[in-house]
TrEMBL record:
Record-given protein name: Major facilitator superfamily (MFS) profile domain-containing protein
Region (Disordered): 1-39, 516-552
CDD domains documented for this protein: MFS_spinster_like
Membrane topology classification: Multi-pass membrane protein
UniProt domain Major facilitator superfamily (MFS) profile: residue ranges: 51-510
Compartments, record wording: Membrane
Cited InterPro entries: MFS, MFS_dom, MFS_spinster-like, MFS_trans_sf
Originating species: Gossypium darwinii
GO CC annotations, alphabetized: membrane
Membership in a protein family: Belongs to the major facilitator superfamily. Spinster (TC 2.A.1.49) family.
């Protein structure tokens, strides 16, 4: 008893340690120095640059899939018959399943449904589950779904698989960019985002070529099986490697949020395994198995309601954030035009300038300008000093100049003059890719980043590229003038530039920078050389203050 009374409680120890740290800041410096000395001489192999490389490869495979299913070798053509009754067999997905153009279009819609519904779900789950593991779950779904597309026996089977491909891609789209921005060097954050988003046009271009070659020499099914094999190692990697913790998300809080359910579930599993009957003791009270099951169900419902309530609160925060809303509105208008360009551009070029190889010309210009424009935009913003205000200046300026260049291109009668001006315009327009996502990430608190990226993705598709193509077709059917319709479409870029111009004058605070100024890591070497893990173990940088949150 004497020994118990003389031993201080854990709470007293914590209070004592906190008071010592507050009263003696020198001890913090000594502890930080000793922690640095205890670090291994060689940092973990999983460095930020390797994280960027892995995420870029995964992003390229994601968009390789989009290009693959749109390629002639995989999508194919339906069976046709002439007036004499002579029929030509179809090819690819459309030919094998004898699909109408409407059914063929549903495959794209099914993918979008899976992507748009799942993106906010994965973003919300990141608050209670490790985000890196969620990416692993998504990549696993992607792998199984693409393999299912290759083995599909019917149209509805492949339609469901395409929806699941969208579900698998949703986790990566919502969570990858926050990881990259968290671990990028401060002076190169936008450049790293630019490299990541450069993989979008590159992946689509490779998908066209890959799908065409595989469909021509083997069979369209092998193209999907090849995708599954390419993604499989990364899906395994997402579960095997020590999970990273996304900064702004406390692993301790996540565990506390899960503790009630996990405890009840564990006890319930034990009951099922041992088939215990009658009352049992939980926390000193006798509770029957039936009562425990009811408690478990009530906790499940309560947990779901809490998550829905939290999601609603987070959405309110985003919707009242003027910087975020203005940025997304500009992004919607921007994507509205680019989406219609991607679908109708080659056909418009053929009808206006009578191009013989409109597909190759438009595709080549888009890929080259997409790659270089995206990278250049990122490096320019970093050179300007990456701030939200500078990002809006670059967004509005580059988009407005790009709109003028593209508008002037479609006004010209000369084909070569059109190609030069259109290439310059696309180069300027793609420079917006990295800055617009930089604003999405930095205008919100770190804990809201996945949801901000998810809702941005949902918005630009629902209000942007999904409705723009059919609306362009309706206007063209009514006007019946390709040049006029295309000029009307291009003018919407000015609307995007206008939204982003308004953003210049909005009061904006970089939530990441603001946090960095008030909280300085006691051991910056940990953040620079190795990536934080999310296994709940405290590293040297966390010893000083359990409430410390690493900078963005």
């Amino acid at each position: 008893m004497a020994s118990l009374s003389s031993t201080p409680s854990m709470e007293e120890e914590k209070e004592g340690s906190v008071s010592v740290q507050q009263s003696n800041p020198q001890s913090q410096h000594i502890a930080a120095s000793s922690s640095t000395m205890d670090l291994p001489s060689n940092p973990s192999w999983f460095t930020p640059k390797r994280l960027l490389f892995i995420f870029c490869v995964v992003n390229m495979i994601n968009y390789l899939d989009r290009g693959t299913i749109a390629s002639n070798g995989v999508n194919g053509k339906k069976r046709t018959c002439d007036d004499k009754g002579i029929c030509k067999s179809g090819s690819g997905i459309q030919g094998d399943f004898d699909l109408t153009n409407f059914q063929d279009g549903l495959l794209s819609s099914a993918f979008m449904v899976g992507l748009l519904v799942s993106s906010p779900v994965f973003a919300s789950l990141a608050k209670s589950h490790n985000p890196f593991r969620l990416i692993g779950v998504g990549l696993s779904v992607f792998t199984l779904a693409t393999a299912g597309c290759g083995a599909a026996p019917s149209f509805w089977f492949i339609a469901i698989c395409r929806m699941l491909v969208g579900v698998g891609e949703a986790s990566f789209i919502s969570l990858a960019a926050p990881f990259i921005d968290n671990n990028a060097p401060i002076s190169q954050k936008t450049a790293w985002l630019a490299v990541f988003y450069m993989c979008i046009p590159t992946g689509i271009a490779f998908g066209y070529v890959y799908g065409g070659l595989v469909g021509e020499h083997l069979n369209w099914r092998y193209a999907f099986w090849g995708e599954a094999l390419l993604m499989f190692p990364f899906a395994v990697f997402g579960f095997v490697v020590k999970p990273l913790q996304l900064k702004g998300f406390s692993s301790v809080e996540s565990k506390k949020a899960l503790t009630p359910m996990e405890t009840v579930s564990a006890v319930t599993d034990d009951l099922d395994a041992s088939k215990v009957k009658g009352p049992i003791l939980v926390g000193g009270d006798g509770i029957s198995a039936d009562e425990l099951n009811k408690t478990s169900k009530s906790l499940d419902i309560h947990n779901i309601l809490n998550r829905l309530s939290q999601f609603g609160n987070d959405m309110k925060v985003l919707l009242v954030d003027k910087v975020y809303v203005v940025n997304v509105l500009g992004y919607v208008a921007y994507t509205f035009v680019l989406g219609a360009y991607g679908y109708w551009g080659p056909k418009a070029g053929y009808n206006i300038y009578h191009m013989k190889s409109a597909d190759m010309l438009f595709g080549g210009i888009t890929v080259v300008c997409g790659i270089f424009g995206t990278i250049v935009g990122g490096f320019i913003l970093d050179h300007m000093s990456a701030t939200i205000n500078h990002a809006f200046i670059l967004l509005s300026g580059a988009t407005f100049l790009g709109a003028i260049s593209c508008f002037s291109a479609f006004c010209l009668r000369n084909l070569y003059g059109f190609l030069v001006l259109f290439a310059v315009g696309e180069l300027l327009l793609f420079a917006a890719q990295a800055p617009v996502n930089f604003v999405c990430l930095h205008c919100v608190e770190p804990s809201l980043r996945p949801l901000a990226m998810a809702m941005s993705t949902v918005s630009i598709h629902i209000f942007g590229d999904v409705p723009s193509s059919p609306l362009f077709g309706v206007v063209q059917d009514h006007i019946n003038n390709w040049r006029t319709t295309t000029l009307m479409l291009t003018s919407i870029f000015v609307l995007a530039a206008g939204f982003w111009f308004i953003g210049i004058f909005l009061p904006s605070v970089d939530k990441c920078t603001d946090e960095n100024e008030t909280q300085v890591s006691p051991n910056p070497m940990v953040d620079m050389k190795t990536l934080p893990d999310g296994n709940g173990d405290k590293g040297p940088a966390e010893v000083q203050d359990s409430n410390f949150r690493p900078p963005c």
